[in-house]
Fold Cytoplasmic tRNA 2-thiolation protein 1.
Amino acid sequence: MPAPPCASCHAARAALRRPLSGQALCGACFCAAFEAEVLHTVLAGRLLPPGAVVAVGASGGKDSTVLAHVLRALAPRLGISLQLVAVDEGIGGYRDAALAAVRRQAARWELPLTVVAYEDLFGGWTMDAVARSTAGSGRSRSCCTFCGVLRRRALEEGARRVGATHIVTGHNADDMAETVLMNFLRGDAGRLARGGGLGSPGEGGALPRCRPLQFASQKEVVLYAHFRRLDYFSEECVYAPEAFRGHARDLLKRLEAARPSAVLDLVHSAERLALAPAARPPRPGACSRCGALASRTLCQACALLDGLNRGRPRLAIGKGRRGLDEEATPGTPGDPARPPASKAVPTF
Ligand code: SF4
C-alpha cells in the first residue's frame, strides 16, 4: 500500500508518522516542523537573547549534532553566534572517535571549535584514571557521577575561554525524563527542585545554561539526523553500562510502551513541581577553593577531586558527605590510578 500524502505540503508522500501526534509527514516538512518547534522553545523561554555568544556543548553524538545543526540554521533569525566546545574526558577507545566527528562537523559547518580536556583542567585526572581509582574502592558504578560533575565544570571553563555568554546542551526529552525518574528514585528533592525548567539562569556568576531540545523526543532527534543526513558518532561510552541511568531508561521504555506521552508528562511534571520551603536546597554560595557555585564549603567538582587525590573517592559521593567540607591533604604517591604529582588541583 503506498504511503499517504504528507499532511503538511500534500505534494510529497509521507515518509514517517510523528511518534506522539501520529501526523504523517514527508522528510522536508518534518525537518521544518522540528526546527520551528526548537525555535518556539527558544523564543517562548527567552533562552538566547539577540547578540548572545552561544557555546554548544558538542560531544559528536546525535543530540549535540542535531542541536548544533538546528541552531546554525536558526542563528540569523535569533541574532546569535555559535561556538562549539567539546570536552575530552580521557576515555580510551571512545572519546577520540567522538572528537573526530566533532572536528568534521566544525569543518563542514565552518564553526569555531575549542576542545578542553579533563587531564589539563583537573590536575592530570582522566576518566580512565578516575575509573581505576573508583574501581579500587568498589565504586566503579560511580564513573558517571564523577564524569557528570567534571564535564559540567569543563564545559563552563571552555565556554568562558571562547567568550560565550550562554551554554546550550543537547539533552532531549528522554534524557530529561530519565533524570526526573532517577531523582525520584533517589528521593533527591534538591535536584528535583533544580531540574525543572529549561535550564539555569546563571546563578552565582555561572553562565546561563539551557536545553533547546528538551521537548524533542529521542526518536524525533534520530529522525531529524536521518533526514538531514547528519554525520554523528553513535557508539556508547565504555562506562555507560554501569550507570544507574540505564535502569531509569529501561523503566521509561516500559512506561512509554503503555503510555506514549509518559516521557513528556515526566518532563512537564518536573517543571511544575513546587517544593515546600523546607525541601528547597540551601541558597548556593561560592566554593572556598575555586569560587564556583557551591551549596557547601567545596563545590561538587572540587570535592570529587579532593576525594580522588586523597585516594578516598567515597568521601565525595554517596554517604561520605563529611568529606565535602574537609580540606584537601596530599594523596598517596605511587598509586597507579593517581595522575602525575606535578600537576595541582586546578582553580578557576
Ligand atoms: Fe561520562 Fe558516563 Fe557519559 Fe561515559 S557514560 S561520557 S563516563 S557520563
